[in-house]
Design goal:
Cyclophilin; signal; single chain; 7-stranded antiparallel sheet; CYP23-like; Peptidyl-prolyl cis-trans isomerase; 184 residues; alpha+beta; 23% strand; rotamase
């Protein structure tokens, strides 16, 4: 009887070890957020972001500078694709207010892609870009669902810390399809 109990315990321990390894792999790519926060105020509610400077330091620095300069003021979401992304327009073309020279200079900077093993899941902030992986400027997406096909292809720099109810409201907005995009 003792050997049967020992085998059962050994099997349970082995299963637990496999599960722990699987969970460790799944959670190993969740970086720590910095204490800094930015709040975007929308007509549908506020969205607060936290940032991953250990994952994408140049991207975080660039976004913070754009925020401090007021570049995202009067900007908009140009794309809301339910269950996928809410994408903030590039500040050089998405603002309704004109930019001063300092804002233009920062807005036109192109970032080298800072790709990581962090997963694209609901709430993640991920830089927009063209086909060139080093072409991100100021457009970014808030993930409205899991998008594993973006993993390692787009620079993740933070996540939504408050305002998921606002994201849910954005997902309900009427949209129109233009080519491959679902536009607001």
């Amino acid at each position: 009887m003792c050997s049967g109990v020992s085998k059962s315990i050994a099997i349970a321990v082995a299963c637990l070890a496999v599960l722990c390894g699987a969970f460790n792999g799944a959670f190993a790519t969740v970086p720590e957020l910095s204490s800094s926060r930015v709040v975007f105020q929308t007509n549908y509610g506020d969205i607060e972001f936290g940032f991953y400077p250990s994952v994408a330091p140049r991207t975080v620095e660039h976004i913070f500078k754009l925020v401090r300069l007021g570049c995202y003021n009067t900007n908009h979401f140009f794309r809301v694709d339910k269950g996928f992304v809410a994408q903030v327009a590039d500040v050089a073309g998405g603002r309704t207010a004109p930019m001063n020279e300092v804002q233009k200079l920062e807005a036109e900077k192109t970032l080298v892609g800072e790709f990581s093993d962090v997963k694209h899941v609901r709430g993640i902030l991920s830089m927009g870009r063209y086909s060139d992986p080093d072409s991100a400027q100021s457009s970014f997406s808030m993930l409205l669902g899991d998008a594993p096909h973006l993993d390692g292809e787009y620079a993740i720099f933070g996540k939504v810390t408050k305002g998921d109810e606002t994201l849910r409201k954005l997902e309900q907005l009427p949209t129109r399809k233009e080519g491959i995009f679902v536009m607001v």
